[in-house]
TrEMBL record:
Ranges annotated as biased composition (Polar residues): 1-12
A Pfam family annotated for this UniProt entry: Response_reg
Keyword set, alphabetical order: Phosphoprotein
Modified residues (4-aspartylphosphate): D75
Domain (Response regulatory) ranges: 21-142
Superkingdom: Bacteria
PROSITE patterns for the chain: RESPONSE_REGULATORY
Stated name of the protein: Response regulator
CDD domains documented for this protein: REC_Rcp-like (cd17557)
One Gene Ontology biological process: phosphorelay signal transduction system
Disordered, as annotated region: 1-20
Coiled coil: none
InterPro entries in the cross-refs: CheY-like_superfamily, Sig_transdc_resp-reg_receiver, TCS_response_regulator
Length: 169
């Protein structure tokens, strides 16, 4: 488990003095690094804990010594316990089910999208192919977070990809 704080940035968002607490469940070190670099580029103050699989994610969330995150990003394909299994466990836990869960995947397969929506994910992101695309997607996630749109996910804005974000801007 790795923890880092991004507090040297300022934001004009409503919660500018409060950093967003994030847990990133991602087994690929390159993808972890890309996420962190894109997050830094958004200028959103944040604290990030990274875990390498769904089991570590659930254990971290259930750890009374850890404060609950504002949002979790969960890669679908991970060893030990995959993202879908971790999502199901989180959403079935009374203490954890309200935490917004954003799924990350290279896949845009309708079955994956539908299954994670039904299991209670807040958003499904197809991993972008460009760094700029990742920044745009993360900015959209934070706007949805700040406007409380992740609390009750809506099917027509559930799937986000580099193409859908680029069309909106």
């Amino acid at each position: 488990m790795t923890s880092s704080k991004n507090s040297d940035v300022t934001s004009s968002e409503p919660e500018e003095n409060e950093s967003v607490k994030i847990i990133l469940a991602e087994d690929d070190k390159d993808d972890q690094e890309l996420f962190m670099e894109a997050l830094n580029a958004t200028k959103v103050p944040s604290e990030v804990i990274t875990v390498e699989n769904g089991e570590e994610l659930v254990n971290t969330l259930k750890d009374p010594a850890e404060s609950k995150p504002d949002i979790v990003f969960i890669d679908i394909n991970m060893p030990v316990k995959g993202g879908k299994e971790a999502l199901a466990e989180i959403k079935s836990d009374h203490e954890l089910k309200e935490i917004p869960a954003v799924m990350l995947s290279t896949s845009n397969h309708p079955n994956d999208i539908e299954e994670t929506f039904k299991k209670g994910a807040s958003l499904y992101i197809q991993k972008p192919s460009s760094f700029t695309g990742f920044i745009l997607i993360l900015k959209k996630v934070f706007i949805l977070h700040w406007t409380k749109a992740l609390i009750n996910p809506v099917k027509n804005i559930f799937f986000v990809s580099e193409k859908t974000v680029s069309r909106e801007d």
